[in-house]
Amino acid sequence: MADLTIRNLTSTPLELKLVERFEGQPTSGRSTPRSHIGKITGLFNSSSVAPNVRIQGDARDRRDVSFTMGPFETRGTDVRTADPGREVIRLTFESEGHRYQVDVPSSSQRSTVMTKLDNGPNEYTTIYVQSGSCLSIFSSANLPSWMRELRDEYPLSALSIPGTHNSPTCHVALPSVRCQAVNVREQLENGVRFFDIRVNVNSDSSELALVHSAFPISLTGTKYFKDMLDVIYSFLDANPSETLIMSVKREGTGKGTDHQLSKILKDRYYEDGRRWYTEPRIPRIGEARGKIVLLRRHANDPSLNSEWGGRGWGLDGSVWPDNCEDGLVGSGIARVQDFYEIDQSHNIQKKIDLARGHLERAAEPVCILPGAEGHKDGAPPQPFFINFLSASNFFNTNCWPEKIAAKANPAIIEYLCLRHGEDGKGPAGLKLGDGSTGVVVTDWVGQDGDWDLIRCIVGWNARLKLKQ
Question: Can you tell me the distance from the alpha carbon of 308 to that of 294, in angstroms, rounded to the nearest whole number?
Fold first, then answer.
């Protein structure tokens, strides 16, 4: 058996103090890679996933140790990992005078929150990647309001932001159309802060139906943009520390144009500046709290060119690179990985490799805050790194969104736990900057209550706290 590696991906120091070893009893049932996140052993074959185990009896071995890990430090140990399916090791950590405990692997199918042994103030979430013999420890985020802990001065592009692709497509629909397991409100409550929205435009109506390509997102009745906005407004009213980026694109069978869409949106939906951030530049968190940041993937009507002192209206994503591995948005506000044309199921590995590469690129920039050495007033912020994990092929059932997510999501969790944020350890060997993930746009998160991918992405914002 290999020795355990521990990654402290939090802003607080940790010390492993005690290791106890128990006999383990496999729990009933087996898990697919999509839901089995707490212990990932195989990315593409669910039969390779070992069963979870529960502790049986008293500890048969107890050992005092001292392995210290500073914030965002990786430490090898001489602690032998548990024999899969037969053993459990119980680890006791100390942080700032308080003790926390976790079983590895746990009886849970997903990430595990450490048990507080003496009512300590910190919350820690762990994910054990068995294939790497690695326990990654994240600060447990308060997902409904995780932006509250970050300074106002950070530009949104410096953050690690979880997003969803075709965000409102959680309804009964064609399997190739549905991309999400849960509704918009539940996504928001669990930390999602980038929404990908497609609307159908008719020239004789200001009503905007939600669509995915040419198809309605629900077979049980039309769903409308306005109703979705009401849900988002309600969430922001309850969580004023938060902001979200909304990408809006025209699709569907309607005969309306981009110019008509921009007028409808501004006249009917964006007139309230309290709700929307529409200045055509990347905002700082403090400027956007409580608002929706507009990223328009449509051309504006010429009448909007005079807005904001002649600079236009909204973040400009109208010239969007198609099916790209690392494409630059025409306005320069974002670099995008959106390779989506999967023609065979084995090409999913290429998609995963591209997503890992874009995570590495997102981790390279360094954001220098006002007052820090090297800060330049008026310098533009780094662009967004927008990384789509989604892909599909309408004509291949093995490449519909849920099937892609079942392979891509666990693979990206494994990367974030094992390699992300390690200097020179990414696919291209790039130098590490702030370690951001960028905007990671997902399918089928939240299914059966599984939010581990979102927790991993949000967890990487703790690295920014080291600069605060």
Answer: 14
Contact between 270 and 206 (Cβ < 8 Å): no
Residue among 2, 6, 3 at smallest CA distance from 128? 6
Q: Which two tokens stand for residue 59?
A: 């500890």
Over pLDDT 90: what percentage of the chain?
84
Neighbours of 353 (CB within 10 A): 13
Q: For residue 54, what is the enclosing H or E element?
A: strand 53-69
Query: Would you tell me which CATH number, out of the four given (3.20.20.190, 3.90.1150.10, 2.40.50.140, 3.30.1510.10), belongs to the domain 145-465?
Result: 3.20.20.190
Query: What ranges do the domains of the chain cover?
Result: 3-139, 145-465
- Model pTM above 0.85: yes
Are the beta carbons of 468 and 151 closer than 8 angstroms? yes
What mean pLDDT do residues 159-185 have?
96
Q: How confident is the model at residue 272 (pLDDT cuts 50, 70, 90)?
A: low
Looking at the predicted structure, is the pLDDT value of residue 444 above 80?
A: yes
Strand-strand pairing, 439-442 and 384-388: parallel
Beta strands in 254-383 (DSSP E): 276-277, 292-296, 315-316, 327-328, 334-337
Q: How confident is the model at residue 352 (pLDDT cuts 50, 70, 90)?
A: very high
